[in-house]
Amino acid sequence: MVPLERLSSNIFQELFKMSEEEFGLSSDGQFTMPCDAASMEYIISLIFGHIAKT
């Protein structure tokens, strides 16, 4: 789960745009992210600052 305030980050905005382009808009409120689980875990770690910046 990702807190709502984190969804406004640039990376999530880009993922939402890519998802809409690839899969279209869902009428049931769910959406598919255009990446695999490992990539999503990495993105979430980046957003929450768990990965050191080099």
Account of the protein in words:
The N and C termini lie far apart (26 Å). Helices cover 46% and strands 0% of the residues. The chain has one domain. The mean pLDDT is 82. It has two helices and no strands. The radius of gyration is 12 Å and the shape is globular.
β content, as a range? Answer: under 5%
Largest sheet: none
* Structural class category: mainly alpha
Listing every helix as H and every strand as E from the N terminus to the C terminus, the arrangement reads HH
Approximate helicity band: 40-55%
What number of structural domains do the residues give?
Answer: 1
User: Please, how many helices?
Assistant: 2
Instruction: Report the span from N to C terminus.
Output: 26 Å
Give the CA-based shape.
Answer: globular
Number of strands: 0
pLDDT average, as an integer? Answer: 82
What's the Cα radius of gyration? 12 Å
Low-confidence stretches at least 5 residues in length (pLDDT < 50)?
Answer: none
Fold topology:
Elements: H1 10-23, H2 37-47
Task: Give a brief description.
It is built from two helices and no strands. It has helices at residues 10-23, 37-47.
List keywords for this structure.
single chain; 54 residues; mainly alpha
